[in-house]
């Protein structure tokens, strides 16, 4: 298979990733297997990719993080963080988030604070959640374990036969860039909307669906006669009749059996629909659950619901809950809600049964915004043991006394022996998709290299930046990675950009380290759209954001971040 055909196939892979119809795990796995079957790479190369030490380190780190994210540490002082003036409260929140994200999984940090910030009444959540997500990125880029992207890049470094990256090798650039961006975020956060704070009187609008059932007295009467336009806290948006959308809905519209009414309204007002006989609230048998607690959740990045519709899954059996409403930022969802593919970050309003929190798949699929916590918190002794052990592993690894993987494996075994973690929890939360993405991406990178495709791109880069020298090529690699991470996921961006960066360094006869850093920092530079980074999606609906909000707050930060990286990397890592 020629270099040009491999590059064409990579272009097709990128197009499909941007389209978003298929998950990155499916696409990268398919491409990796295809290259093996076509003889572009050897079968052993595929197997070696999945036994990469840096990949295994990342997987074990994520499993250890399952215990750390259950610590009550954040809950205990989060209330104190958000008191006082907005600017100081925001600075304290971002500083703590960045510090924690330097060592803990940033998804876990954001997930732990998401519900607390959404429920507090001091500052509108819309002024805090995007800064929370951005700050987790700033902290993550300062250490090897701060973000999965750095560990993904490290897996490519090891696979290329280069020395593994050190624990604090990123800090020389990452810390100054993080401080610069945190200060910039104090000003750009002022551009974020100031939505009304969520309390008992003011709630966020959901999109609700109700169906006119057989025998309902509503049939044959108009919307106006049935008094469906004058509901307290609910507004009738549209009507779906036999796959045909009627919007806006006329007051004289006569209801028929099977009509689906789509409302927008407040969480607490959904019970108002119960007084209409023969009108069933959306969700399989959700009506009998409405007397129970209403729980608001956000679909997590690990959820098996992503890219599936509620009609495709047996939601009631899986979770003992009925979906009452769906919300996606400030976007207006249209059509039958049960046929809309769900996305990571969507908020669902659930009417839950008594044993909802006992279902073992809850914590994998959702971040909870209100109601009872999904996972039991660690005791003080367990929390101290977990954090002390993790700190010891990081310290010993930084000093070079114990390899990071060895230390993490010992800590994982200790957490299991002390029953802080269980085997069933590890099975339930194992990052299988991430393993497929990275292992397959290593094989795709090998195909790009062995076919000559990476060298071809490097030669093109050299001709384009010939007048600007190696520094111009370095900037080019960083900008390519930045554009990729704003377009596809951060890990996919690192996978596609790394072989280009390494080959470009070789073409210029330069040290590969500044180009490796360009890929690592560029792959975390997602600030202007919510879809390239999982924590951005997590805060999208709870913050009631629009795409424009990310652009307004993120563009200045992206420029600051890029300027800092481009200026500092060549100084700290000479060509």
UniProtKB/TrEMBL annotation:
InterPro entries in the record, alphabetically?
Cit_transptr-like_dom, DASS-Related_Transporters, RCK_C, RCK_C_sf
PROSITE patterns assigned: RCK_C
Ranges of residues in domain RCK C-terminal = 195-279, 282-368
Sequence intervals crossing the membrane = 30-47, 54-73, 93-116, 128-147, 167-187, 384-401, 407-423, 430-448, 468-485, 492-509, 515-533, 553-573
Q: Does the keyword Membrane apply?
A: yes
The record's annotation in Pfam families points to: CitMHS (PF03600), TrkA_C (PF02080)
How this chain sits in the membrane, per its record, is: Multi-pass membrane protein
Protein localization: Membrane
Q: What is its main location?
A: membrane
Q: Which UniProt keywords apply?
A: Membrane, Repeat, Transmembrane, Transmembrane helix, Transport
Stated name of the protein: SLC13 family permease
| Taxonomic lineage | Bacteria, Pseudomonadati, Pseudomonadota, Gammaproteobacteria, Aeromonadales
């Amino acid at each position: 298979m020629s270099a040009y055909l491999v590059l064409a196939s990579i272009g097709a892979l990128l197009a499909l990733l941007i389209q978003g119809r298929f998950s990155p795990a499916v696409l990268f796995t398919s491409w990796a297997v295809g290259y093996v079957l076509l003889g572009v790479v050897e079968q052993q190369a595929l197997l070696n990719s999945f036994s990469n030490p840096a990949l295994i380190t990342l997987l074990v780190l994520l499993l250890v993080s399952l215990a750390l994210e259950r610590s009550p540490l954040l809950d205990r002082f989060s209330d104190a963080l958000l008191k006082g003036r907005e600017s100081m409260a925001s600075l304290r929140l971002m500083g703590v988030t960045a510090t924690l994200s330097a060592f803990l999984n940033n998804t876990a940090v954001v997930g732990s604070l998401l519900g607390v910030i959404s429920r507090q009444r001091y500052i509108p959540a819309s002024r805090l959640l995007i800064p929370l997500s951005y700050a987790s990125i700033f902290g993550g880029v300062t250490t090897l374990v701060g973000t999965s992207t750095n560990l993904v890049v490290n897996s490519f470094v090891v696979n290329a036969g280069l020395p593994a990256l050190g624990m604090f090798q990123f800090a020389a650039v990452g810390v100054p860039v993080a401080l610069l961006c945190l200060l910039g975020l104090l000003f750009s956060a002022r551009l974020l909307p100031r939505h009304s704070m969520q309390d008992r009187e003011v709630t966020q609008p959901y999109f609700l669906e109700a169906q006119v059932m057989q025998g309902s007295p509503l049939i044959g009467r108009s919307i106006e006669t049935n008094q469906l336009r004058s509901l307290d806290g609910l507004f009738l948006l549209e009507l779906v009749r036999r796959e045909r959308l009627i919007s806006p809905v006329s007051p004289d519209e006569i209801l028929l059996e099977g009509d689906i009414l789509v409302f927008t309204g407040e969480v607490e007002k959904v019970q108002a629909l119960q007084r209409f006989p023969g009108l069933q609230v959306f969700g399989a048998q959700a009506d009998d659950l409405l007397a129970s607690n209403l729980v608001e959740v956000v679909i997590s990045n690990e959820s098996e619901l992503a890219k599936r519709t509620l009609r495709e899954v047996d939601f009631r059996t899986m979770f003992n809950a009925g979906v009452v409403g769906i919300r996606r930022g400030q976007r207006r969802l249209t059509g039958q809600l049960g046929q809309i593919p769900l996305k990571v970050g969507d908020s669902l309003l659930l009417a839950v049964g008594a044993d909802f929190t006992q279902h073992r798949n809850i914590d994998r699929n959702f971040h909870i915004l209100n109601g009872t916590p999904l996972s039991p918190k660690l005791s003080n002794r367990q929390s101290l043991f977990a954090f002390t052990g993790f700190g010891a592993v990081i310290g010993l690894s930084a000093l070079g006394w114990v390899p990071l993987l060895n230390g993490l494996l010992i800590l994982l075994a200790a957490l299991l022996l002390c029953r802080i973690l269980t085997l069933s929890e590890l099975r339930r939360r194992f990052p299988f998709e991430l393993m497929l993405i990275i292992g397959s991406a290593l094989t795709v990178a090998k195909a790009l290299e062995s076919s000559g495709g990476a060298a071809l791109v490097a030669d093109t880069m050299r001709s384009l930046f010939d007048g600007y020298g190696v520094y111009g090529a370095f900037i080019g690699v960083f900008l390519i990675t930045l554009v990729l991470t704003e377009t596809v996921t951060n890990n996919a961006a690192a996978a596609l950009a790394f072989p280009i960066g390494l080959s470009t360094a070789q073409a210029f006869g330069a040290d590969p380290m500044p180009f490796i850093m360009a890929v690592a920092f560029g792959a975390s530079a997602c600030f202007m759209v919510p879809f390239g980074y999982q924590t951005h999606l997590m805060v999208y609906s709870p913050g009631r954001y629009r795409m424009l909000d990310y652009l307004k707050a993120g563009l200045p930060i992206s420029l600051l971040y890029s300027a800092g990286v481009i200026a500092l990397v060549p100084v700290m890592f000479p060509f």
